[in-house]
């Protein structure tokens, strides 16, 4: 065997026997000679690991409004499940917008008379409004002729609310209930009469089939659902034209298959006619197989007793149930504009479908987040020819809401003019803010997504967002406008609102699902525009979404903070800094935000950036520092600030000019630079040194982040006795198996977060969380092997099992220590489990390592059962070669496989073993084998309280061994503060 070498390895402080290697390791292992070496070590993997409708508007509460006018008994309940329009408000609308005759208000359906004449007398029940008296009604009691009914309908239309369709009422004689003093067990005529008076439901009955539907139905389901006190229509297509209703109190309805099934199950309340979808209801159980649902306010009452409106059973024992929204079997809403209204039916879309989509095919709009805010006063709803509905639902109170309500009410008078519009007129009317015309154009079936070359492919929503017409944005989105439509410059409506400083419009679009991170043609995002405009409220709105990248760069490399610095928006800069803005990012000409702050002459912004650790000595593509730019522009305040912070006035740019050469002679800036030069010359030999940057990036751009080098100890320059590389290299043939067909790989289609990921199974499990950090349960004493996804995997490059191969992400600094030469420290707070860097160097064999002259940078790859290889960072390496030994380490080495799965050549990755503060030195445990050799030449200088390799600890250990040799039969006591020692083989 050759001479003993000092090598780092993955074993760490543990001297226990190595754990059983994986099956793949044992298959690739061959016994080798035992040689005592000193190497940096790390722990072994744990045991058992295995290797590699048109022009019709209606009120949501119209049905209860009609029922209020019906004759009722004193004991009848008055269900009010939905909000009503205030009388004062209705009267104001009637005075300001009087209606014409009934024929004009009925729309193109031919009127009620034409429809009733066609469907026959049997279907007149659809328009009959039955009184909810104590006698009840039956579907067979139709005693009024069609002509009489028509006259009553016309007369009633003149007096009813202008927001509801005409309804009929029938006068019936009310039979006074007899005073029964008791109920006997025998069946009496009084008891029989009383129970016959209870109205029963007709949920399982079907009325005559309709051959032609009115404009109210348009082949769509007429069901109204009650969910947590809110009402919503169904609108799904119908298959059968037979009508149904839960009781004679409710008009006949055509229903979709889902609501027909729910009607048969008695899930529709007979009192109000609303389907009990979500919320609190009462349930009657006449049979263990049958449940009757109804509202508490809709119970039948008779002689002080309550009964189920479905079956007439005693409702005192009915159970109160609460149905959550998620449990409600509500059918999927029909996408706006995707199915013509005359389609007889379509497949059920309530279940997810495996459907491929083209690049330009739009997805369904996300659910309206404002739909929960139902206006307590109600409002008109306008159904467009496309099937979409326009209402004030979700629009906040204010002038815009009032204007929209007015436009929805008086649209009929304007429609009688039979106006026709060109598709391009919609954009112009939107831009002018003509809400009434916009509504009429949408009723004329104009496309809200129409794009014209004359407007650079801008949609009407672009114009509404740019001008801040919130109510028009609301109408267009309800009409089916694409909220993320792009123009020729790839600009979205949200970007238009941001550029125009329309905060409320932008907030509305964001709440409706507008994309906040999309980029236009030049790479700018909404945050770029908001920072450029200096709108603090807009920037706060975008950052509050949590979906924007605060460090996004446009095509010029400018970040939002660079735009804010150029336009002197200091409050925006402060806000961006609190949200993690990176002041070290450069644009395409290598300018950082401090360059732009000096270009604008804002010393206040420059000071804020310097306090955020911005590099004062940064050099752009032309070799100019911020001091060069401030001197050229004659900004005296900026020059004084930079000089007070230690800027070097002797630095020359690529043209050979220093800052003083760029100023006018005898100017304030010239005098300041000359004075600073003399002061610096006078204090060159002062005793106290200050930290100075001697290299702005030791990696020369090979890493994701720059790694500066500073020295505040002596005059030692930046180390240059090695070649910086970012990946391991070879100077001799290693025969590494890089055959892609030999790689075990996963076939995941997600982010590899499932337990079925083969790469995760090779590592026992995937040890990374969603932030790319090691899990808390990761074994830091004996770290297992980690197999990251490779180029043979079918997963995406940004899956969560690709951490080490993504490179360095944390900000590090190479600095001169007082006792240990060069060291590496963190420039930011690093959470536990974060990937720091990889130990990179030259791959050599064990035999080659034994003949190397300098063994200070050897890292043993620790393949005990086979041939051993090492990484030597003496001549080729990265920043990890400067990481010092710490007896209380804050980082741990872990073996990782990425490009290949040759178990002889793992990659050595360093992860933080605990939270690391900014400015704290990084270090790992070199291992006992390293110090067994190197302790003869130098001792540990980490300064830890429990340092194991300091001069004092070594002296105490030698004293203990001497006593043990003098008294071999006596007990060997371990000196206080010295760790127990156990010899281990090579």
Explain how this protein is built.
- The chain is α/β, with parallel strands linked by helices and 986 residues long.
- Helix content is 25%, strand content 12%.
- It contains 29 helices and 32 strands.
- Strands 2-1-26-27-25-20 form a six-stranded mixed β-sheet. Strands 6, 7, 10, 11 and 14 form a five-stranded mixed β-sheet that branches. The chain has a four-stranded mixed β-sheet with strand order 17-18-22-23, with no helix packed on it.
- A hairpin with a 2-residue loop joins strand 12 and strand 13.
- Helix 11 packs antiparallel against helix 12, helix 19 packs antiparallel against helix 20 and helix 24 packs parallel to helix 25.
Cα shape: extended
Estimated radius of gyration? 41 Å
The low-confidence parts are: 12-37, 43-48, 50-196, 327-377, 972-986
Helices, by number, come to 29
What are the salient characteristics of this protein?
single chain, about 1000 residues, alpha/beta, six-stranded mixed beta sheet, five-stranded mixed beta sheet, 29 helices, 32 strands, about 25% helix, disordered C terminus, methyltransferase
Topology overview:
Layout: E1 6-9, H1 23-28, E2 38-41, E3 56-58, H2 62-68, H3 87-96, H4 102-105, H5 111-119, E4 128-129, H6 146-159, E5 168-169, H7 189-196, E6 224-227, E7 230-233, E8 243-244, E9 253-254, H8 257-264, E10 275-287, E11 290-294, E12 300-302, E13 305-307, E14 319-323, E15 381-383, E16 389-391, H9 399-409, H10 411-415, H11 423-432, H12 435-443, H13 460-467, H14 470-478, H15 493-499, H16 503-511, H17 526-533, H18 536-544, H19 560-566, H20 570-578, H21 593-600, H22 603-611, H23 626-632, H24 636-644, H25 668-682, E17 692-695, E18 709-711, E19 723-724, E20 729-730, H26 758-762, E21 786-787, E22 812-816, E23 822-826, E24 835-839, E25 842-845, H27 846-851, E26 858-860, E27 869-872, E28 876-877, E29 884-885, E30 891-897, E31 907-912, E32 923-924, H28 928-934, H29 951-966
Parallel strand pairs: 1-2, 1-26, 4-5, 6-10, 18-22, 19-28, 20-25, 21-30, 29-32
Antiparallel strand pairs: 3-15, 6-7, 8-9, 10-11, 10-14, 12-13, 15-16, 17-18, 22-23, 24-31, 25-27, 26-27, 30-31
């Amino acid at each position: 065997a050759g001479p003993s070498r000092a090598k780092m390895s993955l074993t760490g402080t543990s001297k226990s026997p190595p754990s059983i290697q994986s099956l793949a390791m044992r298959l690739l292992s061959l016994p080798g000679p035992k040689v005592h070496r000193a190497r940096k070590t790390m722990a072994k993997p744990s045991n058992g690991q295995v290797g590699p409708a048109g022009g019709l508007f209606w009120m949501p509460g119209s049905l209860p409004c009609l029922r209020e006018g019906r004759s009722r008994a004193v004991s009848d309940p008055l269900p009010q499940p939905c909000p009503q329009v205030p009388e004062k408000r209705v009267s104001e609308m009637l005075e300001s917008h009087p209606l014409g005759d009934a024929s004009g208000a009925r729309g193109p359906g031919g009127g009620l008379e034409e429809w009733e004449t066609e469907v026959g007398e049997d279907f007149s029940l659809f328009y009959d409004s039955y009184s909810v008296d104590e006698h009840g009604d039956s579907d067979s009691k139709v005693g009024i002729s069609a002509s009489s009914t028509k006259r009553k309908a016309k007369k009633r239309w003149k007096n009813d609310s202008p927001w509801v369709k005409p309804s009929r009422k029938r006068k019936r004689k009310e039979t006074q209930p007899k005073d029964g003093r008791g109920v006997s067990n025998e069946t009496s005529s009084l008891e029989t009469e009383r129970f016959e008076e209870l109205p029963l439901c007709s949920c399982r009955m079907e009325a005559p089939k309709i051959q032609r539907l009115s404009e109210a139905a348009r082949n769509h389901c007429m069901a109204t659902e009650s969910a947590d006190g809110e009402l919503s229509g169904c609108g799904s297509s119908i298959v059968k034209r037979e009508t149904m209703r839960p009781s004679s109190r409710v008009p006949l309805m055509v229903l979709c298959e889902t609501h027909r099934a729910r009607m048969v199950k008695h899930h529709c309340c007979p009192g109000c006619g609303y389907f009990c979808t979500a919320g609190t209801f009462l349930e009657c159980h006449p049979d263990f197989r049958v449940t009757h649902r109804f509202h508490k306010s809709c119970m039948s009452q008779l002689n002080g007793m309550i009964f189920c409106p479905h079956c007439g059973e005693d409702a005192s024992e009915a159970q109160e149930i609460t149905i959550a929204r998620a449990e409600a079997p509500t059918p999927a809403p029909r996408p706006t504009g995707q199915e013509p209204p005359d389609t007889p039916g379509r497949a059920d879309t309530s279940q997810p479908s495996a459907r491929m989509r083209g690049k330009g095919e739009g997805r369904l709009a996300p659910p309206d987040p404002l739909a929960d805010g139902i206006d307590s006063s109600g409002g008109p709803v306008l159904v467009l020819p496309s099937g979409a509905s326009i209402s004030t639902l979700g629009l906040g109170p204010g002038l815009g809401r009032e204007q929209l309500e007015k436009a929805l009410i008086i649209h009929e008078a304007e429609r009688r003019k039979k106006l026709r519009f060109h598709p391009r007129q919609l954009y112009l009317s939107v831009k002018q803010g003509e809400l009434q015309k916009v509504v009429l154009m949408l009723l004329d079936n104009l496309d809200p997504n129409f794009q014209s070359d004359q407007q650079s492919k801008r949609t009407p929503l672009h114009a509404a967002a740019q001008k801040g017409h919130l109510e028009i944005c609301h109408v267009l989105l309800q009409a089916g406008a694409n909220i993320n439509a792009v123009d020729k410059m790839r600009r979205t409506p949200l970007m238009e609102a941001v550029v125009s400083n329309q905060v409320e419009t932008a907030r509305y679009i964001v709440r409706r699902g507008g994309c906040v991170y999309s980029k236009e043609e030049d790479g700018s995002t909404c945050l770029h525009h908001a920072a450029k405009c200096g709108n603090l409220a807009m920037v706060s709105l975008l950052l509050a979404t949590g979906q924007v990248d605060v460090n996004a760069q446009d095509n010029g490399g400018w970040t939002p903070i660079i735009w804010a610095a150029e336009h002197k928006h200091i409050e925006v800069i402060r806000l961006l800094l609190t949200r993690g803005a990176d002041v070290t990012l450069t644009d395409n000409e290598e300018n950082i935000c401090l360059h732009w702050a000096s270009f604008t002459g804002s010393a206040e912004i420059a000071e804020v950036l310097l306090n955020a650790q911005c590099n004062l000595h940064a050099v752009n593509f032309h070799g100019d520092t911020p001091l060069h730019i401030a001197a050229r522009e004659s900004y005296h305040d900026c020059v004084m600030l930079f000089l007070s912070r230690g800027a070097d006035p002797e630095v020359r740019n690529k043209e050979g000019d220093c800052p003083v050469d760029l100023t006018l002679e005898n100017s304030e800036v010239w005098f300041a630079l000359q004075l600073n030069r003399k002061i610096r010359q006078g204090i060159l030999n002062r005793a106290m040194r200050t930290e100075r940057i001697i290299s702005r990036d030791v990696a020369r751009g090979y890493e994701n982040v720059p790694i500066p080098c500073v020295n505040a100890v002596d005059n030692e320059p930046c180390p240059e006795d090695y070649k910086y590389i970012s990946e391991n290299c070879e100077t001799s043939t290693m025969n590494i198996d890089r055959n892609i067909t030999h790689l075990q790989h996963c076939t995941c289609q997600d982010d590899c977060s499932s337990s079925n990921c083969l790469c995760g199974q090779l590592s026992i499990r995937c040890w990374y969380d969603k932030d790319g950090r090691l899990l808390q349960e990761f074994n830091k004493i004996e770290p297992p092997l980690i197999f990251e996804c490779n180029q043979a995997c079918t997963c995406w490059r940004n899956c969560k099992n690709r951490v080490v191969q993504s490179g360095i992400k944390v900000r590090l600094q190479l600095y001169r220590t007082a006792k240990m030469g060069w060291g590496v420290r963190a420039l930011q707070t690093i959470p536990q489990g974060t990937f720091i860097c990889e130990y990179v160097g030259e791959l050599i064999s064990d035999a080659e390592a034994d003949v190397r002259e300098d063994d200070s940078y050897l890292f043993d790859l620790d393949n005990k059962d086979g041939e051993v290889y090492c990484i030597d960072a003496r001549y080729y390496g990265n920043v990890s070669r400067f990481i010092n030994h710490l007896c209380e380490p804050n980082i741990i080495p872990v073996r990782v496989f990425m490009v290949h799965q040759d178990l002889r050549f793992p990659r050595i990755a360093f992860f933080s073993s605990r939270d690391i503060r900014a400015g704290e030195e990084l270090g790992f445990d070199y291992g006992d084998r390293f110090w067994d050799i190197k302790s003869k030449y130098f001792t540990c200088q980490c300064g830890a309280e429990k340092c194991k390799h300091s001069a004092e600890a070594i002296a105490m250990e030698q004293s203990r061994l001497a006593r043990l040799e003098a008294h071999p039969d006596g007990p060997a006591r371990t000196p206080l503060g010295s760790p127990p020692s156990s010899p281990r083989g090579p």
